[in-house]
Amino acid sequence: MVRLDPIARRLRQLFAVLDTDDDGFVTWEDHQRMVEAYAENYSLGPDDPRLAALAEAYWAQWLGLLAKSTPGRFRLSQDEYVAAHRAVGYDTDRPDLLENLAKALFAVLDSDGDKRISSDEFAAYLTFRGVSGDDAPLVFQRLDLDRDSYLSQREIARSLRAFHLNNDGLHAPGGIFLGLH
Length: 181
Prior knowledge:
Elements: H1 6-18, E1 26-27, H2 28-41, H3 49-67, E2 75-76, H4 78-88, H5 95-109, H6 119-129, H7 136-143, H8 153-165
Antiparallel strand pairs: 1-2
Keywords: Metal-binding, Repeat
Domain EF-hand: 6-41, 97-132
Protein name: EF-hand domain-containing protein
């Protein structure tokens, strides 16, 4: 039996979240359904710039994965998805992919537009993601790196980067921004 490192295990979990139609593959349509879920939950209309930024961030993620997979593929199996994610180079080749996703997610979650995510805004996000309200303070605390009682765009970006790059355990808190809990 092959023992997977924590990053590969997290990416397999992410694959399961993104495979929204449970067909054993991830496609652009799966990513679109994620964007549509945000639109519905946060009442984002088709002309809302936050929705456009989120869709663009997911599209860039998808193109980044396709660029690192077998040419001509427009759907990725779990193994292909994990391999493509590992090859994207979020820390060197394409750090903008995670920054753009963090920026788009931050804009959606910052519902009052004050340039920070409060614990109430984060709790609303966790409800959207189906995470128990009892877990909200602990998750928030793990993400609030500067301990100012708010989440910044930088803290979201750092948590996304840690999810993709740190080989330090299965439950990296940045996974919450990708649908893992």
